[in-house]
Structures are given as C-alpha cells and as structure tokens.
Write a structure and sequence with these properties.
single chain, mainly beta, Elongation Factor Tu (Ef-tu), domain 3, conserved putative lor/sdh protein from methanococcus maripaludis s2 fold, six-stranded antiparallel sheet, five-stranded antiparallel sheet, 2 helices, 36% strand
C-alpha cells in the first residue's frame, strides 16, 4: 500500500500557477523528464486576464496633451465584447511598449481586467473604450461631412436663405464616427452630410433632416429643383 502511494506521489505533477489546463501533449506511457523538449500541457492564467490593444499615434499624442501619463493606470477601461455587451469589471492599463511601430503607426498597450468568473478566455475579440476627457457644449459633425482640402478641412453649410456655403474648420478629437469642431462652426449651423458631390457653394438646396447612426439628429441638405 505504501509503495502504491509513493508511485502515485511520484506520478503527480502540480502546476505552479492557477489557470485552465489544455489538452495533454504527451501520450499515455510517454517518458517525462525535466529536460523533455515536448511540454506535458499548457496552462493559461484567467484571473486576472490581460488584454493587448493598439492606439494610433495621433490618439497617443492627444492622450499626452490632455495631461495623462503613460501607462495611465488610473483611468478605468471598458471592455466591449464580441456580442456588443460591456464586460462589467473595469480594467486598467499596466504596460506599454517603448516605441511606436513604424509600419502601422500604432502603439501597443497592455491592460489588466479582473476575471473572477473565468468568463473571458485567451484569444477572444473585444474593443477597449477609455474616457480621457469630459467636455461640455462641444460641436460635433459626422466624419463624412468633413472634406479634406489640400491644406485645410472644410464643410458645406446651408445658410439662412438655403444656399450652400463652404466653411473652413479646425477639427479636434474623433468621437465614434464624428469629429469635434474647434473652430469654423457656431451652434445652430446646418451642415451638409449627404450629397456633397451634387452641390456647390451658392446653390440653393432643400434641406432635409439627417439622422445619425446613433439616432442623434443632425442636419443635411439636398439639391433643390
């Protein structure tokens, strides 16, 4: 009996880390030694779980200009899962690479999320959202309303007499599918969102309401008769 217990203890391998074990990579009866080239199995830690994501160079610069230091562990992160639901626990940035990838112009960050229920698994897809600033009374226009000229950005507006005019603007941060506007527009200005290729400055149009994808009303114009 004692011999059987010793054999059992000798054949028992305990993992030094907590996590979920994968499939056995060595067949039954195979010889296992500390120097074996083939691992017995793989184990992935699940709590906490690490999420890697990338930000563009412009997003990184706006982050720094806003006064946030990297890696910015104090700002809570929201993880959006593949089914478009929000993962309840908030995460925080823990690490960042020390250089921007010159091929993609992005910087890789690493965030840590609590995963007590083991609901998240390695390899899953998600989106990370972080609020870096809170601003009120900011003008926002859809990205497709902004025209990129040679040395400036512009939008087409509908004036009081329903004639189209071109306005040079200065955009700020991107918010979803829209741009914030720092200069060039005033509250109440009507911006042409659809049909920019069909209208020209000075043309009279018949404005029609435009509803953005997030169901927030915006303004649009279409050519009149």
């Amino acid at each position: 009996m004692r011999t059987a217990e010793l054999y059992l203890q000798s054949g028992t391998i305990r993992s030094p880390i907590d996590g979920r074990i994968g499939d056995t990579l060595v067949p039954v009866g195979g010889l296992i030694t500390p120097n074996s080239p083939q691992p017995l199995t793989t184990i992935v830690p699940l709590d906490p779980i690490w999420v890697r994501f990338k930000v563009t160079e412009s997003e990184y610069l706006s982050w720094i200009k806003a006064g946030h230091a990297m890696p910015g562990g104090k700002l809570p992160l929201t993880l959006l899962l593949a089914d478009k639901t929000e993962y309840p626990p908030a995460g925080h940035i823990e690490n960042t690479l020390n250089q921007v990838d010159p091929k993609t112009g992005t910087l890789e960050l690493q965030a840590r999320f609590p995963n007590p229920r083991r609901a998240l698994l390695p390899g899953q897809f998600g989106r990370v959202r972080v609020q870096v600033a809170q601003r009120k009374n900011v003008l926002v226009v859809p990205q497709k309303a902004v025209q990129q000229m040679q040395s400036m950005q512009a939008v087409l507006t509908v004036e009081a007499d329903n004639r189209v005019a071109q306005r040079a603007i200065v955009t700020g941060e991107r918010v979803g599918s829209s741009w914030t506007v720092e200069q060039g527009l005033r509250p109440g200005d009507r911006v042409v969102v659809e049909g920019q290729l069909k209208v020209r400055p000075g043309m009279r149009v018949d404005p029609q309401p435009y509803r953005a994808p997030d169901d927030k009303p915006a303004a649009a114009g279409r050519p009149g008769a």
